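Loading example: each entry is read as two labelled lines plus one structure line.
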Amino acid sequence: MNPLFIGTAERRLFGLYEPAASTRGKQRAAVLCYPWGMEYIYAHRSMRQLSSRLSAAGFHTLRFDYFGTGDSSGEMDQANLVGSCSDVESAIETLKDIAGTSRVTLIGLRVGANIALNVASRPESEVEALVLWDPIVSGEQYVETLRDDSDVSETVLHEIRSIDLPSSLEAIPERSMILVTERLPSHEQLGRPVEFVPTACPWVEEITMSGALPVSAMQRIEEWLR
Amino acid sequence: MVALEIAYKEQAVLLGRHSLVGIVTRPPPARQKDEPVVVILNTGIVHRVGHHRMYVSLSRELAKSGRTVVRFDFAGIGDSKPRNDSTSPLMASLSDIREVLDTLEKSHGICKVILVGLCSGADHAVLYAHTDPRVVGLVLMDPTLPPTFRYYFHYVLQRLKNIRNWISVATGRSGLMRLASTHLLNRVRPKAEVEGLNLQNLRFSSYLPQCYRGAAARGVRMLAVFTSVSVRHTYEQQMLDAFPEASAGGKLRLEFFPESDHLFSGSKERDRLRDVISDWLDSR
């Protein structure tokens, strides 16, 4: 476990790099993209576990806090979706340098999945594989679930409301998986296979102050990436 | 050309032999005060960032005013690896605090600290403080308090207002009855020692008042902050009644946040909390 700051002087991002436990064969690398807000707090434990599992499975992994979130620089009201996408690009470049790989896998949970999809869909993207774990299907519906005191600015709320997964999937990379632990009627309209793993949601407070550890979902991600 | 002033610097660190993950937030050298370092402990199993990023904001604000602040994760929490030994969770956390302070002393020459914690973090702070002379202050947010006679009185008064509680008493399912019987049993049983202690039985343990007494006897200053939601706290003076020695000599300051929930979810409440802590740190 190597804590480090990445990014630029203006956008210092806190990250945790875990080297691949086994370096036999092709070097592989994965950037993990966190959710936002309280979902980030509750799911942190699961993302750490997933990172360790992938590291043991031979992946160099990097997870990091977006600008204005977690231990990264910036204030909460400076965090936004556009900036978070540029932070993912920054994390990809850092991990490629550290791991010595030319391509990386992106794994995003909740809003982190939508951010990862945005980055992976860009024409210049060097994303090898993409895992969308319980992505936000409708930004409008997601905003309704946010608490009144969630410190999200109006500008960001506007950005979130514009999330529309079905239309974003048009440019999804070929090697992608959509994994959900919570089946929603809207998943039927995605026009792509959605893998349902019936297990607890890691981003919802399950035990005091933390989400559950959805082991079967993590196992499935690891299996799919191998 | 006007130079851009850097308000604080943050460094990611691995602390102690268990490589606990932490962040050290420092003021620029010109602003560095010769004051104790503030060390922030985890709340439950939430990582060092805290709910609503409260510990990040607090660290940076305190650093802007000249203080060095360290926030870290206990082993097995947040980004720190779990231990491989059979040490109980409570003992492991107390040992982690010592490891962190040892590292800070060896690598940075820091020999005076103020521990800050919310809920279980507050309990860890007070359980540790009396064992280490490097701890000179405590900021305790919603710490565990034992039930006093007046606590029961207020508790009963509140509960009497609800008919469902009358039904619970009549059917033997009352929380009060369970609480009172636990209290009585703990009085009859041999006193809990630190080895058998955990955060669940702490409320009734005679070891807790000993810790407060020990810290107060060493002159440790304390700021105790209470929100409205603590079920273990029913009236403002409960801490003074529970730990009269802690308040002797003007070393204890009490602050109340009646509008706040346990996690300081409101930004106004977090701002006020930061101001209260800064003011207390600057006071003598």
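Chain B has ten helices and eight strands.
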